[in-house]
Design brief:
This protein has a five-stranded antiparallel sheet. The chain is built from five helices and seven strands, in the order H-E-E-E-E-H-H-E-E-E-H-H. The chain has a domain at 17-87 and 126-166. It is elongated, with a radius of gyration of 19 Å. The longest helix is centred in the last third of the chain and has 19 residues, at 148-166. 37% of the residues lie in helices and 26% in strands.
């Protein structure tokens, strides 16, 4: 018989509570806007990290999505880095990869936290929040979801949906 050198294998601990929090908020947005808008989560892996984008989607506008934040989580549950789009200029958020590489050459990339997403060709800048607990995550998410910029996006999308329904 082969001797078990592993010892006791730990049981699975769910460490993605933050994605469930965002899914719950996506559903609440859908309920509060009478299914005109919903939250949309897209998760992908990049450089050994899990990236999650939280967008507001308008199904009746050809599923148009506006990303309001991105999270990055490494191997361990914490820290979670949150990048709040409202606090970044569109020039930085939408910068193409060649421009990012050029900027990275100009800046000392060791001093600046850069992460390029090949799927979106965008730049993640210095994180808005560095989260160490579920409570911190909920507080940061509430701040972003209740921000004036997020409310402006919701108002604009609802207005466009209403205009489309009148055509």
């Amino acid at each position: 018989m082969t001797r078990n050198l592993w010892g006791t294998i730990p049981t699975l601990v769910k460490d993605t509570a933050y994605t469930q929090i965002m899914r719950d908020q996506a559903k609440l947005l859908e309920e509060q806007t009478h299914q005109e808008l919903t939250g949309w989560l897209e998760e992908y892996s990049f450089n050994g990290n899990v990236v999650c984008e939280f967008s507001i989607m308008a199904p009746r506008l050809n599923r148009y999505r506006y990303t309001i934040l991105r999270t990055i989580q490494g191997f361990y549950p914490f820290p979670i880095l949150i990048y709040d789009r409202s606090r970044l200029s569109n020039d930085i958020w939408n910068m193409a990869i060649p421009e990012v590489k050029s900027l990275a050459d100009q800046l000392n990339t060791e001093a600046v936290n850069l992460l390029i997403s090949p799927e979106q060709s965008t730049l993640f800048w210095v994180p808005t929040y560095k989260i160490q607990s579920d409570e911190e995550f909920e507080n940061a998410l509430a701040e972003i979801l209740q921000s004036e910029k997020t409310k402006e996006i919701i108002t604009a999308l609802l207005s466009k949906v209403q205009t489309m329904s009148q055509i």
